[in-house]
Amino acid sequence: MLASKYQEGLFEAGCDEAGRGCLAGSVYAAAVILPPEFDHPLLNDSKKLSATQRNMLRTIIEKEAVSWAVAAIDPTEIDEINILNASIKAMHLAVDQLSPKPELLLIDGNRFKPYLGIPHVCIIKGDAKFKSIAAASILAKTHRDEEMEARALEFPHYDWAQNKGYPTKKHRSAIQEHGLSPYHRLSFKFTVNDL
User: Fold this and answer.
1) pLDDT in tens, 22-62
2) Are 68 and 139 within 8 A, CB to CB?
3) Strands 104-108, 120-123: parallel, antiparallel or unpaired by DSSP?
């Protein structure tokens, strides 16, 4: 049973990212403010849902949320500022787009940099505890999957339509055979060289 609120009386936004552990593609983050009465029996951490369930919930969340936003940081910038900073920057960019502005940010995980003017709380496995973070995890994941499915049409041999840029055996083998694409993160090159 996911909680609706962390603290009563505050306008809260849940934040989560997707694609942090990938070898290719952008890292995405979403920020979501849900109405207090929002509920759906399938709402959960995106990793516990099927692609069909995630896409169905995405439509509902985007329609019923008070406000929602998604932002992405591309592989070039990930290489420049590192994946942790890129994940946090994507969350900040998503929060930038919210209207009205939240009074508290619920952050999935244990690392975040303060967002000016809005307090935050980090919650480990927050996407399995709070509705707004679960909703953010679904939006970040589905928007990112969409990008990787489009990139897969350009570079089918990496199997991104299936692995979404994660380091599966087929993906790593394709890197060995074909080299890196323009969408690969060079800062993860050591992962490739260690295959």
Assistant:
1) 999 999 999 999 999 999 999 999 999 999 999 999 999 99
2) yes
3) parallel
Q: How far apart are the C-alpha atoms of 122 and 110, rounded to whole Å?
A: 5
Which of these, 160, 153, 189, lies nearest to 174 by C-alpha position?
160
The pair of structure tokens assigned to 95 is 């929060």
* Alpha carbon distance 65, 28 (integer Å): 19
For the beta sheet containing 12-18, the strands, ordered from the edge strand earlier in sequence to the opposite edge, are 67-73, 27-33, 12-18, 104-108, 120-123
Tell me the CATH number for domain 12-193: 3.30.420.10
How long is the chain?
A: 195
Rounded to an integer, what distance in angstroms lies between the CA atom of residue 37 and that of residue 79? 41
Residues of the chain predicted below pLDDT 50: 190-192, 195
Q: Which two tokens stand for residue 47?
A: 């990793």
Q: What is the pTM of this model?
A: 0.95
Cβ contact 17:29 at 8 Å: yes
Neighbours of 34 (CB within 10 A): 25
User: Which sequence spans correspond to the domains of the chain?
Assistant: 12-193
